[in-house]
Design a protein that fits this description.
about 180 residues; OB fold (Dihydrolipoamide Acetyltransferase, E2P); 2 domains; 4 helices; 5 strands; about 15% helix
Amino acid sequence: MFLSALRASARLIPRMGAAPIGVARSVVRPALMTRPLQMAFSTTPRPQATINQIRKTGLFKVNRKRTKAKISETPDLEGCPQKSGVVLKVMILKPRKPNSANRKAARVRLSNDRIVTAYIPGEGHNAQEHSVVLVRGGRTKDLPGVKYKCVRGSHDLAGVPNRRNARSKYGTKRPTE
């Protein structure tokens, strides 16, 4: 296989004594062929292509595609969509520049005994120490090191009260009218 492809690519490379580059053999007049060779040819023989040159130019097909293993953005979830955990501490974090606010977050010990910092979305919350919460992946861009979010309306963490839009993201029931 390899040798047959190498031989086929060697046939594509011009040899010494061929017609000048860019000129077909039938176009060259016999009078020009009888004259001594001038500037059209180099007197040194043309080097053969190396195997690496053939491989790079695509004359010989080599499968060069290598897929990189994707690094998980939420390694502490161990491939699970969510994990439950117990709140160790509720804290208020300051976002990085240029934002200014007080972001609510919690240190959570997951069911696999890993401790993570999880953001608590929405206005107000009832999370306190020893509350059981469900943690999902998803970083908060302006809080360094926070790669997880608590799921509102699940376990001990209540949904956001009086929420009208995007209720499913904040665990709010449909209001009865």
